[in-house]
Each structure stands twice: as C-alpha cells, then as structure tokens.
Amino acid sequence: MRGRWRWLLPLAAVPVLALLAYGFKLNPRDVPSPLVGRPASPFTLTAFDGTPVDLAALRGKIVVVNFWASWCNPACYEEAPVLERGWRAYRDRDVVVLGVDIQDKDEAALDFIRSFSLTFKNSPDRNGKVSVDYGIYGVPETFFIDRAGRIHRKHVGAVTDQVFRETVDTLLAAQ
Amino acid sequence: MTRLAPGVRNPCVGAVLLLAVVLGSAGVASAQPPAKPAAVSEQLVYDVASELRCVVCQNLSVADSPSEMAAQMRAIVRERLAAGESPAQVRAYFVEKYGDWILLAPPRRGFTLLVWVVPYVVALLGIALVAVLVTRWTRRRPAPPPPVDAAMRERIRREMEQEP
Hints:
Chain A is α/β, with parallel strands linked by helices. Chain A is built from 6 helices and 7 strands, in the order H-H-E-E-E-H-E-H-E-H-E-E-H. Chain A starts with a helix and ends with a helix.
C-alpha cells in the first residue's frame, strides 16, 4: 500500500517548483501598465516658467511625458540630456517633450532644470493627481503618446537615445 | 400700487405670481456657488486606503505608509469619496490606473482566485489524509503470536510440572 502512494510526494512538489521557477524568471520591479494602448489622461499643469501646459491641446502631436524628480539619482540625471537631445532633434516634427516633476522641492527641481539646460516644459505635479492618473510607482517613467492621444509605450527607468529615437520614429512612421 | 390689490385676488394672476416667486427663488439658488463636497469620515478613507498598495513601499498599504506618495493617494481617496463616489468606485479608479497589482488582496476571480482557493483545498486534503491514516492505524489488528511447536509445548509442560 505504501509503495502505491510513494510517488505522491514528489508529484506534489512539481507545481510548487514550477511556480517558483516562473516567479524567479519575473522581474518584480516590472509591473505591466494597464494604460498602454488606452487614451492618455488629460491634464493641465502650470510649468515652472508660469505658462500653462495642457495635454489635450497637444492632440495631433506626438507627446513624450517624462515623470522625474531631482532626488532621483542617477537615472533621472542620466536621461535628462537624452530627453533634451530628443526634444531638440524632433521638435520641428510635431514632437513635444513634457517633464512632470513629482514629490520634489521647487528649488531643487529648478536647479536640476538649470544644470541640464532643459528647454522643454517642466511642470510640478503638486498634488500627485497626474502621477496617479498615469499609474506612476517610481521615477523616472516615460510615456510615449501618439497623435491620437493614446499611450503607445511606457518606459520604466532612464530613457536612452536609442529608446527615444526608436519609439518616436515608430510613431512618426505610423502617421 | 393701489390697483395691484384687486388683480392679486384673481386666482390666475396669483398663480402666475407664485410661479414667478418659485422660479425666481430657483434662479437665486442656481446662481449660488456649488455646495461644498460632503464630509467624509476618516475611518472610511482609512478603510479604502488600507486596501490599496503603497506604490513606493514594500508591503505597506496606502493607509499605513508615511510616504508622500501615499499621502497624496489618501488625499485622492478622500476627494473622490467626498465627490460622491462609492468605495468600490474609488478602488476601481486605482485599479484602472495600476491594474489589480494595486490591491493588497488579490481579486477573487481569474487566475488570482487560486490564491484564495488553493489553501483551503490543501487544508482539506491534509485533513482527509490524516483521517485516512488515523483510521488505518487504529483498525490495524495486533500481530498473531508465533506458533508454538510440539517441542516447546513439551518443555513448558515439563517446567510447569517441576514447579513446587
């Protein structure tokens, strides 16, 4: 009788081991966003230079929305020049880069903007509503929005020149 | 002024005047600033926030986290409840933005239903296994004594006889 059931114990371990193997293959920091493919939430912010920033008014353009903070080092420091380069290279082709500064102090944020000579609009998200609307759980996170106002891609971590170019080129080609 | 009194006695004119007064007061009411959002109990805010995962913490709810992000999320919960949304609608808003990941308790549907069901199934299987084993052990008959051969029987008889 005992021999008949001996295979049960190792068999019971199989699903547990399979689940563990599946779990170890996943990146716990990589949480898929349900927002990709859906319309980007509209927002209105006031940029650090006092001008209004209205996402809805940019419909028809490709918009890169980057969430950052001055305390986010090194990732935000690595991508700031990338975003500025991308903005300068593509701004004549209906591409807009918007920075959204979250959970930060104005003084530190302005120092950050000055130190990287950022010329695209950067606005503080003072009450965190835009951050939650975009399902932000860390910085930096970047959303690439197509001309129809849909989120084409969410990039977690520092944006590289390659990611910026490839994604924006894809969106430009899709027109 | 003096001519007004007889006219008012006319029921039709009275009705028109009454209607004018009602409409006028309604107009005044609509011109007033919108009512302030309803007060929301902090317990309700805590209850909803305690079901949401703090997105910048490890294993902490929005209600329990001291982070700025959690504070902003609590404020959003409070604001939405004050605007008349139900706790389920507030939860649905966060799920829409973050997915089911934002809920500390996985939803009881789809794949995550397993998280709720499997422990009970395993516990029931364990109880059944223990019951079967205990039943089997208690029913087991004692082993029969070894057979006594004729030589042994004779030896026992002799030794019994030698006993005083």
